[in-house]
């Protein structure tokens, strides 16, 4: 185990989730973890932005899947004459669809990356 130069930061390493150590080597402000991953402050900030984009695309896909499944189950229940079940599956569907639209606008209009996971 190598001795660390610097102080532990509050951010995890994007590659291994280990502690990032903050090193202020003027003029470069950088971070490194125990296993040797190294980041400049700017590259760490960019990586964190990429991780946010990936998480938002995954959230969008998951919401779309959930809305689609809820709609299918509601339709099947209604076709089978099970009105209370159909109503139960429709609960929250409008809110899910609003959330889907908000996320889609955020990602497509806000320059939310090209990492479309769907």
Fold and architecture overview:
- The chain is elongated, with a radius of gyration of 22 Å.
- The longest helix is centred in the middle third of the chain and has 39 residues, at 41-79.
- It has helices at residues 41-79, 83-90, 93-109; strands spanning 7-12, 19-25, 28-33, 38-40.
- With 118 residues, it is an alpha+beta fold.
Which tags fit this structure?
alpha+beta, single chain, 3 helices, disordered C terminus, 118 residues, four-stranded antiparallel beta sheet
Question: What structural class do you assign from the helix and strand content?
Answer: alpha+beta
Strand percentage lies at 15-25%
Helix residue percentage: 40-55%
Main beta sheet strand tally, sense and closure: 4 strands, antiparallel
> So how many helices?
3
Describe the global form: elongated
Distance between the termini: 41 Å
Rounded mean pLDDT is 89
Strands, count:
4
Low-confidence stretches: 114-118
Question: What Rg do the Cα atoms give?
Answer: 22 Å
Strand order of the largest sheet: 1-2-3-4
What is the string of helix and strand elements? Answer: EEEEHHH
